[in-house]
Amino acid sequence: MPYSYDDQNIFAKILRGEIPNKTVLETEHSLAFEDINPQAPQHVLVIPKGHYVTYDHFAAEATDAEIVDYTRAIGAVCRKLGVTLEDGTGYRLLTNAGPDGHQEVPHLHIHVFAGGFLGRMIK
Ligand code: 5GP
């Protein structure tokens, strides 16, 4: 079944500039901003600007240029936060998909958690 994208989701509104965000980094095809309810000392969301619901949707339908941009943007966020192993002590990337993954916002986002020891992820 094809994905249907709800353009009234909160990240679509952020991309349209209808609600504010604390931007960490912006590229041609990606936007990174601080999570409104941080679950770690540093908690950034990285989203593609295109209308993709989940990671698998993005991987299947995004252009090569979007995939390269998004992949590099996530790494650039880690460098900007100073948490790579060259500059810091690490980070965690996570994406939730669908009801079983407890995805709240139906626009692909990768969480970047960092800023302290994150402990073991149980699930
Ligand atoms: P999910 O559960 O879908 O993986 O994560 C959604 C994330 O979006 C949550 O961490 C939540 O705090 C964040 N979030 C929800 N609404 C807003 C908002 O309006 N602005 C920002 N910056 N983050 C939001």
From TrEMBL:
It comes from Rubricella aquisinus. PANTHER family: HISTIDINE TRIAD HIT PROTEIN. It holds the Pfam family HIT. It comes from the Bacteria. InterPro entries: Histidine_triad_CS, Histidine_triad_HIT, HIT-like, HIT-like_sf. This is Histidine triad (HIT) family protein. A motif (Histidine triad motif) lies at residues 107-111. One of its GO terms (molecular function) is catalytic activity. Gene3D superfamilies: HIT-like (3.30.428.10). The active site is at H109 (tele-amp-histidine intermediate). PROSITE patterns: HIT_1, HIT_2. Residues 10-123 form the HIT domain. Signal peptide: none annotated.
